[in-house]
Specification:
With 56 residues, the protein is of the alpha+beta class. The chain contains 2 helices and 4 strands; from the N terminus they run E-E-H-E-E-H. Strands 2-1-3-4 form a 4-stranded antiparallel β-sheet, with helices on one face. Strand 3 and strand 4 (34-36) form a beta hairpin. The longest helix has 11 residues, at 45-55. It is globular, with a radius of gyration of 11 Å.
Length: 56
Amino acid sequence: MKAVKGNKVYTVDEVSKKDYLAQGYDITDDNFNVIERSPSATVPYREYEKQLKRDR
């Protein structure tokens, strides 16, 4: 799993996942598909997903 926020990407495990979510990171799989969004996210997930598709 990866913790992603802006241009920062960290490899995380189940134990540290909760801490990264609390810091505003999204959790993705190794292919960068979102598994869990940060609870502090300010952009609705649908808008975020649209932007990701547009950027690819």
